[in-house]
Predict the 3D structure of the following.
Amino acid sequence: MSDSPYNKEFDFSEIKAALLNPETPFPASLLYFFSDICPEDLNKLSKVWPQVQTLRRRGLLEDMEVLAEGDTILYFDSFALHCLEDEDPVTRATAIRLLWQSEQESLVPRFIKLMEEDPESIVRAAAATALGVFAYMGELEEITESTYQLLLKHLIRTHLGGDDPLVRRRALESLGYSSHADVPRLIQEAYESDDEEWLQSALFAMGR
């Protein structure tokens, strides 16, 4: 159908005006502009995006996340990748969640870097969780063995390291997908701790 949101041609000036207008909600129909965005439009958007209010940037990514969960045709990966560089940590973390269904093996090094180097724990934790998708794929042999071993090494190192407990717990939860010989012991240690949050993560990892 000609009025289908998938086939609609958007006027970037309309997108820009809506993004920069804090007085009215961003029209839901315009969210389809961000799906499968072309390089030219992404370049235009990158120049406008820093001017968009932080709460609006967060809200847009959250809306895309909900929309993508219910519509597998939508493809927000290119835009989400751009937002991994956003100055706002909540926006970065939401962009990582938006990429959870991507399954692109090339994301693994990017997520490892975010898990280990991002200055905000909320982002590091989101990246540790995102690596769980690839741990599962590694068990199914849907990614290369070298990539799988790389992510396991970094997840184990993060879990055993001195990072924020939230990040370490998320790393353990992702390791729950793996048949690595060390994982049962790591889960057991968390299970036997006196900390309720660690117990929850251990049970979550066991379930996986």
About this structure: The chain has a mean pLDDT of 94. The CA atoms of residues 158 and 205 lie 15 Å apart. The chain has eleven helices and no strands. Residues 121-139 form the longest helix (19 residues).
